[in-house]
Amino acid sequence: MTMSIELEDTLKKRLDENYTAFIDSLQKKTVPELIAMAPEITASQQLHEELLDACDDEDAEFLLRFDDPLKVVRGYWESEIAGYDHSSEMGRTLWRIREDHQDEFEQQEVKPFGRDEIALDPVMDFSKREIAASIEIGFDVGRRFQVYPNIDDTCDLYAKYDPVSKTFRAELCINSYDGETQWNEQWEPVELLPSEREMIIGLMEDACQSKMGRSLRDAWMDHHQAINKERAAHFLKEAGHSPVTPDDPPKPKIQLAYPGEDVYSVLHRAIKTLKEAGQQQEAAAMAFLVFSAKNPTDALAVLSDYVEIEPPQSPKAKTDQERGKTHMSDNIIKQITVDDLRHMGAQEGLILQGCGGDPQEWVDGINQMLTDAGVLLDGTRFENVVSFQHEGLSNLLFPFEDAKVDAGRLAMWRLQTHEQFGGMWLSDYVPNRLGGFVQEQRPQRPRMELEGQDGNIFAILANASMTLSKAGQREQIDEMFQRVQSCGDYNKALGIISEYVDTELSVPQQSRANHSQTKARDQHER
Q1: What is the enclosing helix (H) or strand (E) of 398?
Q2: Are 468 and 480 in contact (CB under 8 A)?
Q3: Residues 506, 513: Cα–Cα separation, whole Å
Q4: What is the mean pLDDT of residues 389-417?
Q5: How far apart are CA 125 and CA 219, in angstroms?
Q6: Cys-Cys crosslink for 345: which of 121, 232, 437, 452, Cβ 3.0 to 4.6 Å?
Q7: Least confident window among 163-172, 347-356, 358-367, 437-446
Q8: CA 264 → CA 243, 406, 412, distances in Å?
Q9: How far apart are CA 432 and CA 436, in angstroms?
Q10: What is the dihedral sign for C-alpha 399, 402, 406, 409?
């Protein structure tokens, strides 16, 4: 059916006016009245949207004779709908509901797999932080995990158990053959029910006892790469049981005092918090594992197993009024080139990348952050900051020569804010980004005073590392760090550090050289 544009526009305007008047009349109705009028409201809405498509010119001309054609047609339409049997349509609707939602309800009915449906491989992997075990499965992975491999694929379940934090996770490994040369592995993380997790951990414990005659915890302590076996044996003798007891109490919370807080400062407060919570054994185990960690990142991971570490509020730069306008805000940050950087081999500093906008605002903000974080000491600030461009980024260099800093705290601050600021040491940036220094000048052994320092060996080690880094002797840092960790004695550790930096305990370099030459000559003569 077709209708002329003129008649269509006229009829549409009349229907719009009728529908608007009808809707306005509903505003004064009560809720029960509106409910009773539901069929009438539905019919009006449907006719307003669809009546024009059903009309031709003759229909339109006839309907326009009425002041309210919408009301006239609605009366007939309601009687037509009310007198029709809708049972078949309702039957089809119910069938579609069942089809659409049957699988959804079946998936919600999770049935745990039984002991007879899995087989644990008794050979487990103890080399990493988590103990890994392979499990052959005989149940329907599609129904249990809603993972649907191909008919020719094979599936294995892998359990990962951390005996320190007592956390458990599982992954499904789906092996698919490409039909020609090799099998492809696809890994899917899956959630197990508590009863399933307990059953698998029990099977792992039984297999470990049967094969090695040891518990999971003891076998892990023997294999874990981060733990020195002699110290582990001493710890077990002193502590008397595993680092985390079977009935783990809730982890207490501690908050970082400032961004980049030194890990050993956090450890001190974590030990105090655990002891106050009556968790003395956990405090002892945590301290042992932290001091056995290879680096601060691993140490923080261990701390997180025993306490919940909450971040501090992000420090913001204070306004000029809050600072009393003590800085020279009208100073112009000096611009240098990357070639200038390559001639700074005898210097050290912190480079922050992507510092767009007003460089003085960046300098003020970073100085404030480092002051609040306890990095800048005795009221000092980075004053002689310079700016340079590289690879489309505006970067800032904060030289260490004009500020007194806590080296350990600065190192941790740089690591924790690296994603935000891209912080790098000058001695790392130039070799890795610019091809190296030009005519680097490196002293044989930089000076570092032990007097007045924090007596903690790790704090001294961090300051020595920073001193070597400033002197361009970064290759010495790892060697010094490893020797200190393996010596096992505080006085020996101080002696080792004093071989790399010039302290009150250092043997004069000339004497050391003569001693080494004499020793080498004697050995040769023998």
Answers
A1: strand 393-399
A2: yes
A3: 13
A4: 86
A5: 10
A6: 437
A7: 437-446
A8: 19, 14, 11
A9: 7
A10: negative
* Distance of alpha carbon 381 from alpha carbon 387, whole angstroms: 17
Which residue type is seen at 186? Answer: Q
Say how far residue 448 (Cα) sits from the centre of its chain: 37
Asked if 136 and 155 count as a contact pair (C-beta separation under 8 A), the reply is: no
- Provide DSSP, 172-224: EEEEEE-SSS-EEEEEEEE---HHHHHHHHHHHHHHHHHHHSS-HHHHHHHH-
Which two tokens mark 444? 């044989």
The one-letter code for the residue type at 211 is K
Cα 298 from Cα 77, distance rounded (Å): 75
Residue 330's H or E segment, with its range, is none
Give the pairing type, strands 131-137 and 118-120. antiparallel
Task: Give the pTM.
Answer: 0.30
Distances in Å between the Cα of 35 and the Cα atoms of 38, 42, 48, 115, 124 are 5, 11, 20, 57, 67
Give 521: exposed, middle or buried? Use CB within 10 Å, 0-12, 13-18, 19+.
exposed
User: How open is the CA angle 446-448-450, to the nearest 5 degrees?
Assistant: 155
The tokens 């054994």 sit on which residue? Answer: 281
Q: What is the DSSP annotation of 474-518? A: THHHHHHHHHHHHH--HHHHHHHHHHHSB-TTPPPHHHHHHHHHH
Across the strands, what pairs with 171?
Answer: 158, 189
What does the H/E/C string look like for 236-296? HHHHCCCCCCCCCCCCCEEECCCCCCCHHHHHHHHHHHHHHCCCHHHHHHHHHHHHHCCCH
The residues with which 174 forms a beta bridge, in sequence order, are 155, 186
Q: Give dist(CA 291, CA 488) in Å, integer.
A: 11
Q: Tell me the chain's radius of gyration from C-alpha atoms.
A: 38
Residue 146 DSSP one-character state: S
Q: How far apart are CA 368 and CA 506, in angstroms?
A: 37
Angle at which helix 216-223 crosses helix 229-239, to 10 degrees, equals 150
Reported as a single tens digit per residue, the pLDDT across 237-253 is: 454 444 444 345 678 88
For residue 480, count other CB atoms closer than 10 A to its CB.
20
Collect all residues with Cβ–Cβ distance below 8 Å to 442 and sequence separation of at least 6: 345, 346, 471, 472, 473
* Residues 225, 24: Cα–Cα separation, whole Å: 78
User: Mutual orientation of helices 38-50 and 69-82 as an angle, nearest 10°?
Assistant: 120
Amino acid at 379: G
Q: Rounded to whole angstroms, how far apart are CA atoms 165 and 516?
A: 48
DSSP-based three-state secondary structure for 120: strand
Least confident of 93-97, 138-142, 370-374: 93-97
Residue 147 pLDDT exceeds 70 = yes
Q: For 250-295, how does the pLDDT look when each residue is reduced to its tens digit (9 = 90+)?
A: 788 888 765 556 676 788 788 888 888 888 777 777 777 777 676 7
Q: At what angle do helices 38-50 and 5-26 cross, to 10 degrees?
A: 160
